[in-house]
Every structure is written in structure tokens, then in C-alpha cells.
Inverse folding.
């Protein structure tokens, strides 16, 4: 027996040792994979908030800490700027993959929003929108407000990435602890404002900003889109030449609550006064955008700072009047309801694009059937739309 035992031990002890070492190596590898920063719960960019969410759901136990999106929401609510920037990057992302995380983020902060006065600053290129945003922003900060500026920087498309143009133009404001400046590339532009700007406003409010200024890109009819995300529009115009009203699209003048003739300084002071008169006369003939506010026209100089206190006082008066008579809330309610359809339209358009891409693939066959004259276009269209409605791809798999 002792001999038998020795034989058994000689075989099994080394075997057990090999198994144990193998197990340790395997466990270490697993641990190392878990520590991979790419799989960690802290999202570093828009694109990976959603991805990080999936990873953490897969690797953390069921009763784990808040989701990465919830963490980001909490950081924004506590006023952390970097979190706000990350959140804005997420909501600006045009990628369908980020859409659910972006919506979840906005929903997570939603109860703490709505507190800011939302101001659109519109006008042709070079009229002084950024300079004005800085001047009025500094003025509001001096009144104890916290100011966020969301600016579409047209230069960013030209320079192809760096978007410091507006930031440098708002140098003084940028240095204030009470300000947050977010230049957005005009790449994802919808109607003269950046993609996701409505959500960005919401996030700024969640981060505790009392004033949100949205500088638009200042090009044509597209400017009208800003009306849908703000409480009031301040249209900046150039002083001078009597052809002002022809130079500016009538549509944008009609949506303005304020027309500010900027650059009323030096030689342009007198022309600016004439332009004020011109706009006053023109506005009398137009129906105002809000029932409770007649648009006002006055001159200012964003560079010299003249007229800025008056502009702020009138903006405050607008806010008080429209808050009191309920038009601010009813406007916001209408905007929010309209935005739902905006998102639905966008999602449907994208689904249709997917369908289109799929129909062009050789496997799809629908277009081929139509081209070959075996299927009527209307019948094919209905079948394709059914697929979009069911959320199916053309290969028959569910999304
Ligand atoms: N004289 C004078 N110049 C001004 C005033 N406001 C802005 N400017 C100048 O006008 C130029 C354009 O100003 P911006 O503030 O960049 O104009 P903007 O409308 O933001 O321009 P874009 O964003 O490129 O459309 C700059 O050189 C400013 O210094 C002003 O009140 N008076
Ligand atoms: Mg600008």
C-alpha cells in the first residue's frame, strides 16, 4: 500500500500543481482584460459613453454602481465643466450609436433644467455676434449670473478641426469662472445651429448656467432654426447703407425680438442711428414673433460697450414680461413638442437611408425587381416602408 500511495502521489501531485498554475495564469489574464481602460466604466468621449455602458453592464454585477451615463449626468449636475463638455460632445454626435445614450443623459438631468434664459444671437457674418456675446456675457456675470455660450464657428470647417476662433474672440469671457464657452464645428449644422443644440442648452442649464447664449452662423434662412430653441432672438445688423433691409433676409427680421445695430461707434455712429430708424419703420409693418412683445430696435457698440447695459435691461424686461404672462412657458412647450417630431423625422430619414443603402446591395433585390419590371414601384415602396416600420433590415434581422 505505501508503495501504491507513492505511485498515486507521484502522478497526481505534479498534475494538481500544473492545473493550479494553469488556473492562476488564466485568472490573471482575465483580470488583466478587465483592467483594460477601453473596457472601464469611465467614458472618455462621446462615442464611448454608450460603449462603456454596454461593457459595464456586461462586466459588473447586477446591483452595481450607477451607469456611466448616470455618472456623467451627476457630474454635470454638480457643475463640472469637463463633464458638461463631454455631455455636449455626446449630444452633438451624429452617430446613431450615441443617440440612446444622449437621450438617456438629457433625460437624467431633465428635472433640473429650464432655469436659464435662452438667447439666440443672430446676424450676418462679421457683424459682431461673438464680440456682442462676450460683452453681454460679461455684463450678465457682473449682475451675478452664470453664462454659457454655444457658438457655431464657421472657421472650423475651413481649418478642418481646430475650433478656437470664437474662443479667442471671447478672451475675457473665457477667463471668467462664471462663463462656459463651447464653440461647435459647423460640420453637423442644421439650420445655422449645431446639431444637438437643444440638448446642449439643457445640459448647460443642468450645470447651473442662468443665461445661455447661442451664436448662430449667420447665413440666410437657415437662421430661422434658432427660433425653435431659444426664448428670444437678438438680431445684429450693420449700420449704414439704406439697402440694409434688402441685404438681410426678411424672414430673420420677422423672428427677431430685438434688432441691434452694432458697431455704433466712431464714424459709424451716425449711420447706425439712421439704420435704427429704418428698422423701426420696417418692423412696424411686420407682425411680431410674440404676442406679448413688440420687437425693439436700438444701437450698440460691442467693442466700446455702449448700449450693452440697455440691451441687458431690455432682455431682462422681455424675460419678466413673457414669464409673467405665460408666453415663455407656452413657447417652450410648443418648441418641445415640435422637437419630438424633429427627432422622429431624423430617425425615419436615417432608416430610409439605411433601406436605400440596403436596396442598392446585390442581396436586397427590391430595386432589381422594380428595374426588371417584375414589381410595381408603389408596391415595392410599401414593402420597404413596412420594413422601416417594423424596424427590420432588408436582410430580415431585427434591430
Ligand atoms: N467698430 C466695431 N467693430 C466691431 C464691433 N463688434 C465687433 N466688431 C469687429 O467686427 C469684427 C467681427 O467681429 P465678430 O464678433 O467676430 O463677428 P461675428 O458676427 O461673430 O463673426 P462670425 O462669427 O465670423 O460671423 C471684429 O474685427 C470685431 O472687432 C463694434 O461694436 N464696433
Ligand atoms: Mg462669431
Amino acid at each position: 500500500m505505501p508503495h501504491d500511495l507513492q505511485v498515486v502521489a507521484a502522478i497526481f501531485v505534479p498534475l494538481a500543481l500544473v492545473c493550479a498554475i494553469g488556473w492562476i495564469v488564466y485568472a490573471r489574464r482575465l483580470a488583466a482584460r478587465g483592467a483594460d481602460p477601453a473596457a472601464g466604466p469611465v467614458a472618455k468621449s462621446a462615442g464611448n459613453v454608450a460603449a462603456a455602458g454596454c461593457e459595464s453592464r456586461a462586466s459588473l454585477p447586477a446591483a452595481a454602481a450607477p451607469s456611466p451615463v448616470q455618472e456623467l449626468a451627476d457630474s454635470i449636475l454638480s457643475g463640472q465643466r469637463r463633464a458638461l463638455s463631454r455631455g455636449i460632445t455626446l449630444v452633438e454626435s451624429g452617430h446613431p450609436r450615441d443617440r440612446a445614450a444622449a437621450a438617456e443623459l438629457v433625460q437624467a438631468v431633465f428635472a433640473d433644467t429650464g432655469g436659464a434664459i435662452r438667447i439666440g444671437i443672430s446676424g450676418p457674418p462679421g457683424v459682431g455676434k461673438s464680440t456682442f456675446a462676450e460683452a453681454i456675457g460679461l455684463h450678465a456675470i457682473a449682475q451675478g449670473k452664470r453664462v454659457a455660450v454655444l457658438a457655431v464657428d464657421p472657421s472650423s470647417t475651413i481649418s478642418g478641426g481646430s475650433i478656437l476662433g470664437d474662443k479667442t474672440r471671447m478672451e475675457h469671457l473665457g477667463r471668467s469662472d462664471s462663463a462656459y464657452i463651447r464653440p461647435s464645428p459647423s460640420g453637423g449644422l442644421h439650420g445655422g445651429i449645431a446639431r444637438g443644440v437643444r440638448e446642449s442648452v439643457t445640459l448647460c442649464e443642468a450645470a447651473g448656467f442662468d443665461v445661455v447664449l447661442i451664436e448662430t452662423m449667420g447665413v440666410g434662412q437657415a437662421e430661422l432654426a434658432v427660433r425653435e430653441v431659444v426664448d428670444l432672438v437678438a438680431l445684429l445688423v450693420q449700420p449704414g447703407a439704406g439697402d440694409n433691409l434688402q441685404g438681410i433676409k426678411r424672414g430673420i427680421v420677422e423672428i427677431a425680438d430685438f434688432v441691434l445695430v452694432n458697431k455704433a461707434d466712431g464714424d459709424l455712429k451716425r449711420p447706425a442711428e439712421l439704420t435704427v430708424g429704418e428698422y423701426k419703420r420696417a418692423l412696424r409693418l411686420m407682425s411680431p414673433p410674440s404676442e406679448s412683445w413688440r420687437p425693439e430696435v436700438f444701437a450698440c457698440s460691442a467693442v466700446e460697450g455702449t448700449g450693452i447695459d440697455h440691451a441687458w435691461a431690455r432682455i431682462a424686461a422681455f424675460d419678466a414680461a413673457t414669464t409673467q404672462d405665460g408666453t415663455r412657458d407656452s413657447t417652450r412647450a410648443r418648441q418641445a413638442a415640435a422637437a419630438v417630431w424633429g427627432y422622429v423625422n431624423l430617425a425615419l430619414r436615417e432608416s430610409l437611408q439605411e433601406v436605400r443603402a440596403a436596396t442598392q446591395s446585390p442581396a436586397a433585390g427590391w430595386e432589381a425587381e422594380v428595374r426588371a419590371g417584375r414589381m410595381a414601384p408603389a408596391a415595392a415602396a410599401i414593402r420597404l416602408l413596412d420594413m422601416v416600420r417594423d424596424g427590420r433590415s432588408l436582410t430580415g434581422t431585427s434591430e
Notes: The two ends are 66 Å apart (CA to CA). Residues 359 and 365 are 7 Å apart (CA to CA). The longest helix spans residues 327-360. The first strand starts at residue 117 and ends at 122.
